[in-house]
Hints:
The structure holds 2 protein chains of 2 kinds. By secondary structure, chain A is mainly α. Helices cover 73% and strands 0% of the residues of chain A. Chain A has 2 domains: 12-96, RNA polymerase sigma factor, region 2, helix turn helix motif (Rna Polymerase Sigma Factor, Chain: A), CATH 1.10.1740.10; 124-194, Arc Repressor Mutant, subunit A (Orthogonal Bundle), CATH 1.10.10. Chain A starts with 11 loop residues before the first helix and ends in a 5-residue tail after the last helix. Chain A has 10 helices and no strands. Chain B is of the alpha+beta class. Chain B folds into 4 domains: 2-54, no CATH class; 60-110, no CATH class; 114-262, Jelly Rolls (Sandwich), CATH 2.60.120.1440; 279-346, Phage tail protein beta-alpha-beta fold. Chain B has helices at 2-5, 8-16, 20-29, 34-54, 60-70, 77-110, 114-124, 285-296, 304-308, 321-332, and strands spanning 127-132, 138-141, 147-150, 154-159, 167-178, 187-191, 194-198, 202-207, 213-220, 223-227, 240-243, 247-252, 257-262, 279-284, 300-301, 311-315, 335-339, 342-346. In chain B, strand 6 and strand 7 form a beta hairpin. In chain B, helix 8 (285-296) runs antiparallel to helix 10 (321-332). The longest helix of chain B is centred in the first third of the chain and has 34 residues, at 77-110. The radius of gyration of chain B is 25 Å and the shape is globular. At the A-B interface, helix 2, helix 3, helix 6, helix 7 and helix 9 of A face helix 2, helix 4, helix 5, helix 6 and helix 7 of B.
Amino acid sequence: MLSTGSFNSYNETALWESLAKGDQEAFEILYRHYFKILVNYGSRFTSDTLLLEDAIQDLFTYLWRRRVQLANIQEPKFYLLRALRNQLSRNIRNDLLEEAEDIDDFLDYLVSLSDEQQTVEQETLLDQSRQIQAAISKLSPRQQEAINLRFYHGMTLDQSAELMGIPKQVVSNLLFKAYSMLRLMLKGLFSFLFTFVYS
Amino acid sequence: MKDFLNDDAFVRWALHNEQDAYWQKVMVDYPDKQDIIRQALELIQQLHNAEEYRTLTLSEEQNWKRLRKNTVHASPLALWSQKRYWVGALSVFIIVALVGGLLWIKKATDSTTYTKLVTKASEKSPLIEKVNNSDTTLKINLEDGSVVYLKKNSRFSYPAHFTAKSRETFLSGEAFFQIAPNPKKPFYVYANELVTQVLGTSFDIKAFDNDQRVQIKVRTGRVSVYKQNPIRLASEESQHLILLPNQQVVFNRETESLSKQLVADPIPIQPLVKGEKRYFEDVPATTVLQALEKRYGVRILYDEELLAKCIITTTLSDQPLTNQLDLICQTIGATYREMDAQLVVQSAGCP
Lengths: 199, 351
């Protein structure tokens, strides 16, 4: 409101239009707005930071090259999440043969190490989130993705279904199962949250 | 609850405060759904936070440098020779503008104060300023029917006429607000680094220029508070907090951190209605705690099995929540503490 040249949901259409005309500033603003959102969604599929960085680079490079076609983009967030998902699955498939499994394990190990370290340093507020986070990580990958799309990115049921390539009813079932599992795992501390899941 | 979680509009409200007026009205029209709605809200926010912490850490800056090299700075060779000069000049200009812009924004945000905000806003439309240097509270009636009670040593600025889309006001010091509902024109209060957005409710803001803290307390309704931050908008959704009655947010200007707490003296969100039970004889402590939760709209956490065995007799009063909780805890030999705007009762149980 008091700042210009930054992102808000009101000027997003204008930003994409400027990008189509080759406006570098608009490109940067869009990049900066969507970077973290894409990193978050991408983290669902890989813990390999290099792989994810490459996919995001490829995605934005593509956007810049095809900017003229993007002037009238509808639902840009949905479009970008879908593009990242496709890009990642392409890259992961290509790398699958070259990438030794133990490198992945090692990366996972690094991630878990820093997780542990952080847990010690964080206060109770974070603990709470971490417990939920730990519980979420025990769900199936598809349940996790459904939770992420819906409650982090605010995608509708229809959009989530289209992104995941499954019918809407299946997403709904996945989520319902996820609530029940979370309820079991978080019983002690968060029972109040789930009292009414079944009502 | 499943119905709410499956409702796209509800999720958008929980995450982005969209269509706040509509959902506020649902809360009012269906009082028996209020608990479920609050729980669904809380669940969604907890899931959102958990997802937020799980994100890998990648450097936005380094990736931007790499991307810039491959996109805006890369030109096909044939064009390069013709355009070399101005591409070079343009990039220098962009870098200078960027660095200049960053420095300027940093300076501006280092201390976003009332004077700066008002100067900037008055360029758009003339503002009326009220200053209260007396010891009594100054009542200000705004054209939309909202009332502002300006406390001493405070100043408040507002446009003579609000714009068609929003009601923007500016505060330095302390004031209590009663906002006339108008979903089409959200009411904003800019106070130091914080922006409070509201559609119709009452709340209190304390934000003195020379004070290290900015404080916002909610009496009724629901407000959304966020930090003014013109450059890092990537996480705009996560930088705002939603406050319910009897909650407050404190912004520490030194550490730039926002924290949600209970107000010091939670008051009942609704007075005891006629015929509502206030005298409890030989009931499990959990029954009384549930009644308190409902009256004050404050979440109280406890071990249900342990406390079910603690039998008490008590009468609810209109006193602050903490007094009543002190009394109950003394009776059953328990303690309580505040955690993340909730109260946690700890007890070894009763024989």
